[in-house]
Specification:
Blueprint lengths: L2 H14 L3 E3 L1 H9 L5 E4 L5 H13 L3 E4 L4 H8 L6 E4 L2 H12 L1
Parallel strand pairs: 2-3
Antiparallel strand pairs: 1-4, 2-4
Helix pairs in contact: 1-5, 2-3
Length: about 100
């Protein structure tokens, strides 16, 4: 299993635990409520939506990463058709995901 697959598995576990924000609108809402800890952005998210999420993350000092995952691949990890972006809303999951990326 590749490290990227482990990151998607971590996202799936966080979803099952109810510790995610999914989609651009939900993520922006959770960022503004200061409930998002770490954000994953799909490679095929529209530039306008990507800019909104990145600006909100930078303004609120929330870490994010532009992934190489498609919306479909991220969606499959959480049991949905497509997910344009996903945020971890619990610090433990966020820290574990960051460790997988830093490897």
């Amino acid at each position: 299993m590749m490290e990227n697959d482990k990151l998607l598995s971590m996202l799936g576990m966080a979803r099952k635990a109810g510790k995610t924000a999914l989609g651009a609108d939900d993520i922006l809402s959770q960022i503004n409520k200061r409930k998002c800890c770490f954000v994953l952005i799909s490679e095929d998210l529209s530039e306008n939506s990507k800019k909104k999420i990145v600006n909100a993350c930078e303004y609120n000092k929330i870490e994010y990463i532009n992934t190489t995952y498609s919306k479909e691949k991220m969606g499959k990890a959480v049991g949905l058709i497509e997910v344009s972006a996903a945020g971890f809303t619990e610090k433990g999951f966020a820290q574990a995901a960051k460790k997988l990326i830093d490897r």
